[in-house]
Amino acid sequence: MTDVTVPALGESITEATLGEWLKQPGDPVKADEPVASLETDKVAVEVPSPVAGTMGEQLAAVGDTVAVGAVIARVEEGAAAAAPAEAAKAETPVNPAGPGETPATRDDPTAPHAAESAGLTLSPAVRRVVLEHHLDPSRIKGTGKDGRLTKDDVLAAAKAQETEAPKPNLAPAPPSAPAKAGAQPQAKDRVPASAGTQERREERVRMTRLRRTIAARLKEAQNTAAILTTFNDVDMSAVIEARARYKDLFEKKHGIRLGFMGFFVKAAALAARDVPAVNASLDGDEIVYHDYLDVSVAVSAPGGLVVPVIRDADKMSFAEIEKAIADFGRRAKDGSLTMEDMKGGTFTISNGGVFGSLLSTPIINPPQSAVLGMHRIEERPVVKDGQIVARPMMYLALSYDHRLIDGREAVTFLVRMKEALEDPTRLLIDL
């Protein structure tokens, strides 16, 4: 038997929480295949099997705190152990009902477990959606890391299934014969007294280590920093026009779409040169000024928002920024972000507009001193040259630590960003 141990988790991190077993005793495993998922304060970390063989005894339970180097399971070594799963997969008949559904498993609640025993690993969120929509996960193509299923994969399969489902027969039923006077209703016509009463249920789910850490850090920020938020609005016409004009050439040359975030990162870098306090931090009684801009970009992950860092963003091109953001989004989705990706950061940008947010007051990410909140773009009436016209407007919110940043500096920072975004030429000639 070969021991499965908790790997190194990053600088100063000595323990994690066992979040999920991806393999059960008796399951075949390949060398380096994930057998468990650990939750640290920042990211989820997969524990690989050191050898090929059969999953043996599990020495820790989901929810346990495990130290780096601790033995959490054992694997019985032997490459032949993986053969039965491959053979079963090869003998699986072609599904005549189409992807995402088989007659045998359409309403079978054990389908996710059967799929996992056949070599698939499902996260709790994916397993829940599979059960809700009565799908066979082995019939769905995964787009996550190593072909693993994501929640979006299952939802797409469920939507496709609904589209392909036959329409119900809506023809009216023939009229029934009139009831005789004084006749009692038949049993099938009686309405139970409890009809219309819906069952009320509650579900308790243990907070993940990541969610607990997020909660603690947000509360710490509120308790420690003197947080204040200032606002401005930006006419996005020039940025939208620039994207429309150059998006095809940009994608053809760089292999990545030209998004909005590149403009905001470049504008923030320009504004931070004029207002360096926004990119600074407090360390005891000292103010630490940075001659670089490491931007923490909030991206959505299955377990909540995470903030990987774009290093030296002030020195990067639009294409380099967009590629970094796209890579972070992809790796957040498949759970492959690392501790190093999250480390550091001098300034944060959070885009709530992608979820439809009109206005917000974001909370700073200690030890940083400021965070910029982007919001949705919508046409609003504004006055231009004495005329009321419709313009695509966005509200910007800058939350900052008033212990370090004065109101004048915060307002100046947003004004510099507004000027750069409404006239993107400034980004090119450094004005």
Descriptive notes:
The structure is a single chain. The chain has 431 residues and is of the alpha+beta class. The protein has three domains: 1-91, RNA polymerase II/Efflux pump adaptor protein, barrel-sandwich hybrid domain (OB fold (Dihydrolipoamide Acetyltransferase, E2P)); 100-164, Dihydrolipoamide Transferase (Irregular); 228-429, Chloramphenicol Acetyltransferase. It is built from eleven helices and 19 strands. Strand 18 and strand 19 form a beta hairpin. Helix 3 (124-133) packs parallel to helix 4. The model is unreliable at 80-110 and 176-189 (pLDDT under 50).
Tell me the β content.
15-25%
Provide the CATH superfamily of the largest domain: Chloramphenicol acetyltransferase-like domain
Number of structural units classed as domains = 3
Rg over CA atoms, rounded to whole Å, is 28 Å
The CATH topology annotation of the largest domain reads as Chloramphenicol Acetyltransferase
Please identify the top-level CATH class of the largest domain. Answer: Alpha Beta
Poorly predicted residue ranges: 80-110, 176-189
| Overall morphology | globular
The total beta strand count reads 19
Helix and strand content put the structural class at alpha+beta
| First-residue to last-residue Cα separation | 65 Å
CATH architecture of the largest domain: 2-Layer Sandwich
Q: Bin the helical content.
A: 25-40%
Return the string of H and E elements.
EEEEEEEEHHHHHEHHEEEEEEHHEEEEHH
The main β sheet shows up as: 7 strands, mixed
Q: Helical segment tally?
A: 11
* Average pLDDT: 81
